[in-house]
Write a structure and sequence with these properties.
The protein is an alpha/beta fold and 410 residues long. The chain folds into two domains: 298 residues, Metallo-dependent phosphatases (Purple Acid Phosphatase, chain A, domain 2); 80 residues, Cupredoxins -  blue copper proteins (Immunoglobulin-like, Sandwich). It has seven helices and 21 strands. The strands form four sheets. A seven-stranded mixed beta sheet has the order 2-1-13-12-3-4-5. Helix 3 links the parallel strand 4 and strand 5. The radius of gyration is 21 Å and the shape is globular. It starts with 29 loop residues before the first strand and ends with a strand.
């Protein structure tokens, strides 16, 4: 299989061949506290007061809504987009604003843009910031998109703004695409970016967002940005940089030095993991599992300690919500992965594991407080958690498969 990570930005001699094979492709409830660009995994509901308890700034990211799509992968993308907004409106820590990282629409039609605007206007945020996806600029070189969402931007839609000590940059890498190529920023935008960053202190936290990932995930499918390396070089001097993207419809995170890269799940439909299908595109999953593949991202910043935190949550009520409404919890065993990899539940809750692989698996707590029998295809195992704490587990047949259940008292 081809390399997923094409470039070694650190020049540290580490062989990153197949690195993404070891990463979690979908998850919920994991909180990454970033200090100086280094992420430390924490559990939602168990973060320290200094990292998220008094967030100076809190915002959310959604992506790839594809309003206008109605094929088998999701016949009602309007419903799942509305659900994402509803979840945002019930967050216990209300976000100041929302970032949408592109592919608002599926075919760039005026009525599709109308629908997106009407739905996102119901979000309880001060403002929504947008960058386009390739599906938003299919006609007129993006004229319809720019007239609606780009009036305060430069060039083909790029811009920057500051809020609560954080510098935000929205980039456009979906125009002037070449056959078989990657995303492209272009000379004009790169020169603007360099000048935009020059006045900033290196201690300024920077958040960059665009549609196509700025790092190369899988070039065979165009999952990367051709001139993204140059943009990243401008960012290397900053102590804390977070890069948010969409486009690939699945959650992946990578850290290179002071820069954390994070791609968001879609609100419309999933896509296959790199190299697991002949090509990218809408992936049909069982209807009752669809919402567990869709999601949103919440980001918090605490002024003073230069800390950012990223948390992904799915739209599946079985996984739990920030409002604590969920009463059932399910973990899929699929493609040699526990998904979600981390589940946070309340004391007394029951978690059920379902094996969707053609290969048998087990679920065994590392402290032996619970253990399943061998689970064949479609077989289930449930365990009720009556003590608070963290319960790491693994598959005894395939020990590289790991997960964690966190049990809260309230």
């Amino acid at each position: 299989m081809a390399h997923y990570i094409q470039d070694n930005y650190e020049n540290d001699g580490i062989d990153r061949r197949g690195f993404l094979n070891c990463m979690a492709w979908a998850g919920t409830g994991i909180l990454y506290a970033l200090t100086g660009g280094v992420a430390r995994g924490r559990v939602l509901g168990h973060t320290s007061h200094s990292s998220t308890g008094n967030a100076t700034l809190n915002f959310v990211q959604i992506s790839d809504s594809h309003v206008g799509f109605s094929k088998e992968a999701n016949k009602d993308v309007i419903a799942t987009l509305r659900l994402a907004v509803a979840r945002i409106n019930t967050l216990s820590d209300p976000p100041a604003f929302m970032i949408h990282t592109g592919d608002l629409t599926h075919l760039s039609k005026p009525e599709e843009f109308d629908a997106v605007q009407q739905i996102l206007q119901t979000a309880r945020v001060e403002r929504v910031w947008y960058v386009p996806g390739e599906h938003d600029v299919l006609t007129g070189n993006g004229k319809e998109y720019l007239e609606r969402f780009g009036r305060e931007t430069r060039g083909s839609g790029w811009f920057s703004f500051d809020q609560k000590g954080v510098h935000f940059i929205g980039l456009v890498n979906v125009l002037n695409l070449k056959a078989g190529g990657l995303g492209s920023l272009g000379e004009e935008q790169l020169e603007w970016l360099e000048n935009d960053l020059k006045p900033l202190s290196s201690s300024t936290p920077v958040v960059v967002f665009a549609h196509v990932p700025l790092w190369t995930i899988y070039p065979e499918w165009g999952w990367g940005t051709d001139d993204g390396m140059r943009a990243l070089e401008y960012l290397r001097r900053f102590g804390s940089v977070t890069v948010l993207n969409g486009h690939i419809h699945q959650t992946i995170q990578k850290i290179e030095g002071n820069i954390t890269f994070h791609t968001a799940a879609s609100t419309a439909f999933p896509q296959p993991k790199p190299g697991t299908a002949p090509s990218p595109g809408p992936m049909k999953v069982p209807t009752d599992q669809l919402r567990s593949y869709l999601g949103m991202t919440q980001v918090r910043y605490v002024q003073g300690n230069q800390s950012l935190a990223i948390a992904d949550s799915t739209l599946d009520p079985a996984v739990g919500t920030d409002s604590g409404e969920a009463v059932t919890h399910q973990v899929r065993i699929d493609n040699f992965t526990f998904a979600p990899k981390l589940v946070t539940v309340r004391l007394g809750a029951e978690v059920t594991w379902v094996n969707h692989d053609d290969i048998p698996h087990t679920v065994v707590n590392t402290a032996k407080s619970f253990a399943s029998p061998v689970l064949d295809t479609d077989e289930k195992f449930s365990h009720k958690f009556e003590k608070p704490g963290e319960f790491p587990y693994f598959c005894s047949l395939h020990p590289h498969m790991t997960g964690t259940v966190v049990v809260r008292e309230s």
